[in-house]
Structure to design on (166 residues):
C-alpha cells in the first residue's frame, strides 16, 4: 500500500475564496490506483507553511509520496518548486522532465512548468500543476513507475528484481 499526502498550494483556496477541486480529484485518482490518501491540506503560497508540511510529512514514517499542487508557474507568489528544492536531499529530475514532455500532448503551457521532484529521507516529493485537470494528467503520466520508486526508497527485497525486469 502506498501512502500519499496531498498539499494544495493556493492563496484563494486557503482563504476560502475558491473551493479546491484539485484535492478531491487527486484523492479519487489515488484511491482508484489502490493507494491510500494519508493526509490532505490546503495552504497559501507562503514558504514557511509549505516547508512545514513537506518536512513534517516526509519526516513521518509511513508517508511514501507527497504530491503538491499549485505554485509551479511564473508569478512572484509561485514558490512551490523553490521551497521543495530547499527541503529535498536528492533531486529526481526524470519524473518532471517526463511530465513536461508528455504534458505537451495536452497543452503547450506544459513547457512553462517549474515543477521539481526529489527525495527527502524515504519520501518522494513531486510538484504537480495547480489546475485539477493538469494535476491528474501529470500524475497519470508517471503513476506506473511510482511503486518501483517507493520499493527502491524502502530498499524492498523486490526492488532489485523489479529493476532488472523493467
Amino acid at each position: 500500500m502506498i501512502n500519499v499526502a496531498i498539499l494544495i498550494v493556493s492563496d484563494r483556496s486557503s482563504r476560502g475564496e475558491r473551493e479546491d477541486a484539485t484535492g478531491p480529484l487527486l484523492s479519487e485518482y489515488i484511491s482508484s490506483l489502490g493507494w491510500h490518501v494519508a493526509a490532505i491540506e490546503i495552504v497559501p503560497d507562503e514558504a514557511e507553511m509549505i516547508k512545514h508540511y513537506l518536512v513534517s510529512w516526509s519526516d513521518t514514517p509511513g508517508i511514501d509520496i507527497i504530491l503538491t499542487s499549485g505554485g509551479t508557474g511564473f508569478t512572484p507568489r509561485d514558490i512551490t518548486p523553490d521551497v521543495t528544492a530547499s527541503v529535498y536531499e536528492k533531486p529526481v529530475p526524470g519524473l518532471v522532465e517526463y511530465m513536461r514532455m508528455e504534458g505537451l500532448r495536452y497543452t503547450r503551457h506544459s513547457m512553462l512548468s517549474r515543477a521539481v521532484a526529489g527525495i527527502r529521507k524515504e519520501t518522494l516529493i513531486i510538484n504537480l500543476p495547480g489546475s485539477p485537470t493538469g494535476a491528474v494528467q501529470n500524475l497519470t503520466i508517471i503513476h506506473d513507475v511510482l511503486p518501483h520508486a517507493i520499493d527502491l526508497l524502502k530498499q524492498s527485497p523486490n526492488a532489485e528484481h523489479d529493476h532488472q525486469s523493467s
The first strand starts at residue 3 and ends at 9. The longest helix spans residues 47-58. The domain at 3-165 is CATH 3.40.980.10 (Molybdenum Cofactor Biosythetic Enzyme; Chain A). Residues 3 and 62 are 7 Å apart (CA to CA).
